[in-house]
Amino acid sequence: MVTIPNRRVAVALALVFAALAVVPLVGETYALKVATRMIVFAIFAMSLDLLLGYTGLVSFGHAAFFGLSAYSLQLVSPESEAANLITALPQCLGVTAAAAALIGMLVVRTAGIYFIMSTLALAQMFFFFFHDSPIAGGSDGAYIWYKPVLTIGATALLDLDGRETLYYFALACLVLCYGFLVVVLRSPFGEVIQGIRVNEHRMRALGYDTRRFKLVSFVLSALMAGLAGFLFACIDGFVAPQLLGWRESGIGLVMVILGGMGTLYGSIIGAFAFIGMEEIVRDRQFTGVMAEHWQILMGVFVIVVVLFLKNGLAGLFAEPPIRRPATKEEP
Amino acid sequence: MDVTLFLLQTLNGIQHGLLLFLVASGLTIIFGIMGVINLAHGSFYMIGAYLALSLTQWTGSLFGAVLLGIPIAILLGLAIERLFIVHLYDRDHLQQVLLTFGLILIFNELQSIVWGDDPHSVPKPAMLAGSVPVTETLSYSTYRLFLSVVCLVVAGCLYLVIHRTRLGMRMRAGAYNAEMVRSLGIDTRRLFAVVFAIGVSLTALAGIIAAPDRSLYPGIGEQVLIISFVVVVIGGIGSVKGAFVGAILIGLADVYGQAYLHDFRGFASAAVYALMAAVLLWRPTGLFGRR
């Protein structure tokens, strides 16, 4: 059932990863930073694809988990020394998973458009919480002064403060997440959630507690988004409420659609292409005076993608991915 | 707890709810009849509010702004429908969400180009600028009373249009089964355009008349959009009655939350979402939603 990349795509992916592995050797600091962001968003988009393309749940609040994990890192980091990665990462992911379980229990009761609207609204609740509360600087955001370090015993093995270390760490996470999702989707659990996407009533008739499966898929996806958020917080060492906002959630959806929903590798392509596009339209060299108003160009880009690129970029050079049936059914 | 203060807060909540109803009713009829989930709906509120700013300066009165602003909003709505929304009728919700998301990005940037990022305020009409004394120390803003009256009148008109006119009959039939309506020889393209224009003008009206009571800043559109989503989810998507009940409930929850949970910063605005969560647990398709 899982769309495993055909040989052409597999070769292309291998080449891309090989190319990514040498970026730090040739690129300057800024390029490295952009590349790290691309990788982080690829993880985020891929986590969303698990919901969107495989479980058939359109979540418009996924950034809540991305941002919540980033904020958790800010909160668990001591002010004058680095947090230990080995404790900080599980703490951040634990908070994210707990929040996802709570929200998930609520939203999997709904379907179709109610699901879209309630995920958006609940995510906005987190946004307003961090925006209004005095925790972590409120609407101004807050700094993470010392980025996490992986320490075992007394030896520091990985310092995420180093740009290259962070880059390779993120790249390793991306590869691991991709592998993990492929395994999950080929497992019996994966078969069930894909069955739910195609026909939930039938799966229920077959005796599956579909809500529970959707909930597990929701939490798994949120965990992976949390990992992306954690890495994102390490890039600039700064968190702001916007990380949890609806705009980030929307951007995640656009990345998945741009790359090709329900293909996993499509999300990676989508994230790279979207961030690449953002860098281009923000650059005065390419767009002149419009660079200042790059949001307009991004808006046009999003509309063009939706109207003309139905199967995403992955659809251009692979066999078309399985089309999701319309979610228009009455809730 | 002071009883008079509580009553005033209740009045505030109802007024806030009535205004929300104008936005949410547009959202809900556009979804109920056209099957389109329109994220850019909040942008029309924002456009209404900023039109109020410019037109009040230009004509010298808020009423001039309403008279000119509504036709502008209707024209804009028709143009947007013809250019973009038309392509969404046969698409799934995800694509509708994304296209209208793209529209928001464009509208927000245009707002920042035309009106700038500084907060603005719109003067109240002189005859409504005062306040009505309630007790010796407390009074209530005349303009807010005026707002409530306008919203109630509009809600009444909407009820009459939907239940007592031929257009309303078509709208109800369209919400029930658009394909059947089309096969009976009714031009659904035109019906959809009219419905979209009605939805847009309701929202723009809300933006215009709310402008003197609140300040204008970038992002007001989204704030209203999200809270209208909550209203629509509570009321049941597609139900105007549900939007009305939901709007009043949310208006009250929001105002009480801000007033009485003020000491728990960060939780004050959560009251609204807690209410939504409770309704979803009880009725996953809203209070008046179709099962």
Outline the structure in words.
The complex is a heterodimer of chains A (331) and B (291). Chain A is mostly helical and 331 residues long. Chain A has one domain: Orthogonal Bundle (ABC transporter involved in vitamin B12 uptake, BtuC), CATH 1.10.3470. Chain A has 14 helices and four strands. In chain A, strands 1-4 form a two-stranded antiparallel ribbon. In chain A, helix 2 crosses helix 10 and helix 6 (163-186) packs antiparallel against helix 9 (210-236). The radius of gyration of chain A is 19 Å and the shape is globular. A two-stranded antiparallel ribbon of chain B has the order 1-2. Chain B has helices spanning 3-34, 41-59, 62-83, 93-115, 142-164, 166-176, 178-183, 188-210, 220-235, 240-260, 271-282, and strands spanning 131-133, 139-141. Chain B contains eleven helices and two strands; from the N terminus they run H-H-H-H-E-E-H-H-H-H-H-H-H. In chain B, helix 2 runs antiparallel to helix 3 (62-83) and helix 2 (41-59) crosses helix 8. Chain B has one domain (3-218). Chain B is globular and about 65 Å long. Classes of the chains: A mainly alpha (331), B mainly alpha (291). At the A-B interface, helix 5, helix 10 and helix 13 of A face helix 4, helix 9 and helix 11 of B.
Kindly summarize this structure in a few lines.
Chain A is mostly helical and 331 residues long. Chain A has helices spanning 7-26, 29-55, 63-76, 85-107, 112-132, 163-186, 188-198, 200-205, 210-236, 246-259, 265-281, 284-287, 294-308, 314-317, and strands spanning 142-143, 149-152, 155-159, 238-239.
Could you name the CATH topology of chain A? Answer: ABC transporter involved in vitamin B12 uptake, BtuC
Number of DSSP strand runs of chain A: 4
Query: Major beta sheet of chain A, specifics?
Result: 2 strands, antiparallel
Percent of residues in helices of chain B comes to over 70%
Radius of gyration of chain B: 19 Å
Q: Which overall shape of chain B is indicated by the principal axes computed on the Cα atoms? A: globular
Indicate the mean pLDDT of chain B. Answer: 88
CATH secondary-structure class of chain A:
Mainly Alpha
Number of helices of chain B: 11
Secondary-structure arrangement, i.e. CATH architecture of chain A: Orthogonal Bundle
| Structural class by secondary-structure content of chain B | mainly alpha
Low-confidence stretches of chain A are none
The helix content of chain A is 55-70%
Note the beta-strand portion of chain A: under 5%
Euclidean distance between termini CA atoms of chain B: 41 Å
How do the strands of the widest beta sheet of chain A line up side by side? 1-4
Distance between the termini of chain A: 26 Å
Series of secondary-structure elements of chain B, N-terminal to C-terminal:
HHHHEEHHHHHHH
Q: What's the helix-strand series of chain A?
A: HHHHHEEEHHHHEHHHHH
